[in-house]
Amino acid sequence: MAESLVLPKTAHRQEIYKSLLPQLRALTDSEPDLIANLANISAALKEAFGFFWVGFYLKKGNQLVLGPFQGPIACTRIQFDKGVCGASYSRKETILVSDVELFPGHIACSSASKSEVVVPVFDKTGAVAMVLDVDSDQLNDFSEVDARELEKIAALITSFL
Fold first, then answer.
1. What is the pTM assigned to this prediction?
2. Membrane-spanning regions, if any (predicted)?
3. Where does residue 90 rank: exposed (0-12), middle (13-18), buried (19+ CB within 10 A)?
4. How far is Cα 119 from Cα 5, in angstroms, rounded to an integer?
């Protein structure tokens, strides 16, 4: 894959995700390094959608630890029972939050974050290996389209874990 994305000129996220996923596959197919792949996936999502923050929290011991990301500095460590990331990890499910201020136990890494979607990434045994965290500086910015398409990206990551 070239070092640039080819994205449709549309405001419809579904179409952008449809174009992005095969490019992510091509980008990661020949690269064996997990961190490099996660870094490029973060960058591609940020470039494609202009999200406020995109990144990964990796399971290390009994907590989630900041991994590759794009955006302002972030919380470094998250307990499994804290915030949207911890909830997604613990419940083993995608969580859409239209207003982070209304989510019980939300961790405010940035006061500019207004809505969030977090997707668990499973290893080949079915355990949660990490979460993909995407934040917006707009309320109610994510939909089921984002959840479904980000789950496809999480499945791509599982394929090379």
1. 0.95
2. none
3. middle
4. 23
Cα 124 to chain centroid, rounded: 19
29 three-state secondary structure = helix
Burial of 93 (0-12, 13-18, 19+ CB in 10 A): middle
Average confidence score pLDDT of the chain: 94
- For residue 117, give both structure tokens: 């979607």
CATH number of 13-159: 3.30.450.40
pLDDT at 2: 56
Looking only at the bridges linking them, the beta strands covering 53-60 and 63-70 are antiparallel
Place of tokens 């999502």: 45
103 Cβ partners below 8 Å, 6+ apart? 83, 84, 97, 116
Indicate the pLDDT class of residue 107, thresholds 50, 70 and 90. Answer: confident
- 144-159 vs 34-49: helix axis angle to the nearest 10? 160
Question: Per residue in 54-105, pLDDT tens?
Answer: 999 999 999 999 999 999 999 999 999 999 999 999 999 999 999 999 998 7
* Crossing angle of helices 13-29 and 144-159, rounded to 10°: 10
